[in-house]
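Q: I have 135 residues here and want to know how they pack in 3D. Can you give me a structure?
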Amino acid sequence: MLKRRAPAVESVNDKDIPVSRLSFNKDTMKHSVVVTKRAYHFIKGPIPFDWMQNAASLPGKTLAIALSLWYLKGLKGALTFSVTSKAVGLADCSRQAYSRGLNSLVLAGLIEVDQQAGRRPVITLKAIEGDKQHA
């Protein structure tokens, strides 16, 4: 973890620094601001290439939506999970476009959707015929 000292500028107000970024060294009796790396998103694999190739051939934002579903699969650790608003945000599209993309994936046979009124859709990622790794 990188540690940097706060600049010795009179205009820095202690209230401007979040408490989570402060550290205290007992030996020197001084405090410093801890610079942390920002969290980043990644998709946990493996992702079947044929599955992704089929999703890429679909119209609109469907590929971005498919990638957000695989991101959620990595977070949840299961092939069946609920869609969150975070996934819609990661796909960078409207809820309506997300819904159209899910419908395209269903028609292509890549996912199953269990949707009930007033509830988040429950998605199941499906294996492509002959795909032993994903099954």
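Q: Anything worth noting?
A: The chain has four helices and six strands. The chain has a mean pLDDT of 79.
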